[in-house]
Amino acid sequence: MGRRTLIFQLVNISQLLQEISGELHPLAQEKSPAINLDFADDLNTKTIIGDCLELHRLFTYLIGNGIKFTNSG
User: Fold this and answer.
1) Number of domains comprising the chain
2) What is the residue range of 47's domain?
């Protein structure tokens, strides 16, 4: 009931976060906090093993809530 099969694969974490940042940029502009991605030099090429869709949902939720619940700045 409600179970989803996770699909583990290599995920480029910086690429995933850049994609999410682009998707949430219009929401951030409405409230005026900027989304700034500042990666350590070695993170640009880092991959992790995980379910890409679930990681996308997780980071979208976290960053989206940060935007929603930040009044300014």
Assistant:
1) 1
2) 17-68
